[in-house]
Write a structure and sequence with these properties.
about 300 residues, about 75% helix, DMT family transporter, mainly alpha, single chain
């Protein structure tokens, strides 16, 4: 049992670390190439979807069964376009107009909206921990946006709007596919979601061209882009795999190191600077997720999903 626990801890810490590193790598890509968010996200979703589904197929998973059920594949397409693509697009654009740390922290506000939504649906008053989580999240968001002074908003209007869309996107991403995941498994739904999202973005992004993409990349930027895609896929597999050895509560708590890793890498590698109140805001948001994770031991069977950053 101790060996299994060690394996689980190693998997979730490694997965969260890779997620945390990938955000700054995406930011570096935009700073050092002419790569557009649309083109990057198109390649990322398509490759990640193909890699995930291929791995599942090679392990004899039934990846095509869902397409025999119209009600399920209609839900899957909605998830791929609005959930997977919507959340990823807002996240990448937030990095593009602000920075990786801001995008990750807005992403971490998702569980707060989910808590509020569930409380409204069940018509039950939130627990003390949930109330503390909401207060911590709102305080953290305030400090993140204003750096402690409402007269000097740190983030641009566009960054705030995209950040809030990131929060909404990840909320929808988590809530919408719950029934599909119960029926077909997390990996199958996420794999198809990424592929469908990539195909939808190609249809929307008429200017996408492999030739133009290759011209906008150097050996270094191409290497980083491939590293982001591969590390993101591996981190997702590690996260899902850790649930075999650890509880959902433990994985949720340990995944909170992601924004810390993102902040450290951004400061050391990208020379990003953050105000003291912004850093405090980040800690408040992480604390909010921690508050939500603590009382969930009685609900370990709930679906826990995680999207690649």
């Amino acid at each position: 049992m101790e060996t299994n626990r060690f394996i689980g801890l190693l998997m979730i810490i490694s997965g969260a670390t890779l997620w945390g590193i990938s955000g700054p790598m995406i930011q570096w890509l935009f700073q050092n190439s002419d790569l557009t968010p649309n083109n990057f996200l198109t390649v990322r979703l398509l490759l990640a979807g193909i890699i995930t589904l291929s791995l599942l197929f090679l392990t004899n998973k039934n990846i095509f069964g869902i397409w025999k059920h119209p009600r399920h594949w209609i839900q899957l397409i909605i998830f791929g376009v609005l959930g997977m693509l919507g959340a990823q697009y807002a996240f990448i654009e937030t990095i593009h107009v602000s920075n990786a740390v801001t995008a990750v922290l807005f992403q971490f506000l998702g569980p707060i909206l989910i808590t509020i939504y569930v409380a409204m649906q069940t018509k039950k008053l939130p627990t003390v921990m949930q109330i503390l989580a909401v207060i911590a999240a709102l305080s953290g968001t305030f400090f993140l946006i204003t750096n402690g002074s409402i007269e000097n908003v740190v983030l641009s209007k566009k960054a705030i709007i995209l950040g809030l869309l990131t929060t909404l996107g990840f909320t929808f991403f988590t809530l919408h596919p719950v029934s599909l995941i119960k029926e077909w498994g997390t990996s199958v739904i996420i794999g198809w979601g990424m592929l469908i999202g990539g195909i939808a973005l190609i249809i929307y992004n008429q200017e996408f061209s492999i030739v133009h993409l290759s011209q906008s990349l150097t050996v270094n930027t191409l290497s980083i882009m491939l590293l982001v895609i591969i590390s993101g896929t591996i981190s997702f597999i590690l996260y899902i795999g850790s649930l075999k050895y650890l509880s959902a509560t433990e994985t949720s708590l340990l995944s909170s190191i992601e924004p810390l890793v993102t902040a450290i890498v951004s400061i050391l590698w990208l020379n990003e600077s953050f105000g003291a109140y912004q850093l405090l805001g980040g800690l408040f948001i992480i604390a909010a997720v921690t508050f939500l994770s603590i009382p969930n031991k009685s609900k370990e069977k709930n679906i826990t999903t995680k999207v690649m950053p």
